[in-house]
Design brief:
Largest sheet: none
Number of helices: 3
Distance between the termini: 31 Å
Protein name: Glutamine synthetase inactivating factor IF7
Shape: elongated
Order of helices and strands: HHH
Structural class: mainly alpha
């Protein structure tokens, strides 16, 4: 696997992790306000790339590994 392929795979994995964390936060927030599972399932699709600020917010910090 070339360096470019490795970098692309790393970026794609990071993007999917950020997107998954966003969806989890949306699901928990929806459950807290009383949405049903059917309503939650319809509204969890996140379209497009997360903004830079969202990526920074949903990225794991290094302190979790210490």
């Amino acid at each position: 696997m070339s360096v470019q392929d490795q970098a692309r795979a790393l970026m794609m994995r990071h993007h999917h992790q950020v997107k998954h964390r966003q969806q989890s936060l949306l699901a928990r927030s929806g459950a807290e306000v009383g949405l049903t599972s059917e309503e939650l399932g319809q509204g969890l699709h996140i379209q497009g790339k997360p903004s830079f600020a969202a990526q920074q917010s949903y990225t794991r910090s290094g302190s979790t590994f210490s």
